[in-house]
Task: structure prediction
Amino acid sequence: MRYCRNNEKSAKIFIAKLMVILGILVSIILLVSIVGRNNWDGKSRFTVISEVLSEKNENSDFKLSILSLEPRQKRAVYIAIPANTLLDVPFGYKKYLASSVYYLGEFDRKYDGGYLISKSIEDTFGIAVDAYIIFPRNSTSIIPSTLDQMKKSKQSYFSLSKLPSFLWNNLKRNYILKTNLSFFDRFFLCWSVFQLRIDQIYFIDQENSQFLKDDVLPDNSVVKNVDRDLFDLVSDNYFEDSQVRTENYSISVINSTGQSKLAYQFSRVLSHIGANVIIKTTSEEKYPGVCKIILTTQEQKSSKIVTRIKNYYGCLIEILPEAGSEQSDIKVILGDKFIK
Result:
């Protein structure tokens, strides 16, 4: 009888602790809903890169990953990027090892290291990166490099009992070196991962990534190049925003920068999030700004795709009803400052 009473008492204590944890989480959710979020609405497609810095010229402890969440569809894709992957770095830098890009930005100081690694991922994979999290060297943060590590971290850090402490660590200032995520963004990011089952996260690492090809440099070092066409083929709709796909607006992309292949690169980004790009062309007439979105109706201004392009790239919006006779619903002009 005493044994049964002890078990019953233990069960009641466990339930009480569980209710306290749930109460804390619900309170945080309500607080965030009232105060508002910064960069993310918690519903749209959201892509974040995480990097643990290595010692300069040392790749052994380097980890870089891409996590893209689609909360409405309850799914995500995770890509573990090897340290020796060559990334296409924009703004005239050309190609650099993934482990060196952050330091390149910090050394040059013209571009923030987190911003430069984000734009390099965008140029290489054709993925719009919404946010970045940079962890300091020798960080204890978990960035899985294998599927087994992913499963263990999901069980260890995103269980109901461990989530509060994991959230607290991620919200402490000294835990993260640099990020453009707000307090509330980080909470909703953790909460979104918590809600996913492990089978709802498609995991890609160097063992099963067909698009990473080994290449030997003149000094006999081995690097990995990203096969863009193959990546676009195998990634299918992994980065698609369901709201953008549902709108199904036709889009023209006009490159007026003088830099070749920019319309193609920008179209890759739009296509990955589900936009219907039907025209990619170059204009001899240069546009001096960053970018401009030309619409045919006022309603298009509040569309998901227009909102994403405007917020992400800082494009100006112009409404020209007479442009309705043209082939596409929306026209995006990339200007001279887009590449600076």
Notes: Residues 32-37 have pLDDT under 50 and may be disordered. The domain at 240-339 is CATH 3.30.70.2390 (Alpha-Beta Plaits). The longest helix spans residues 2-35.
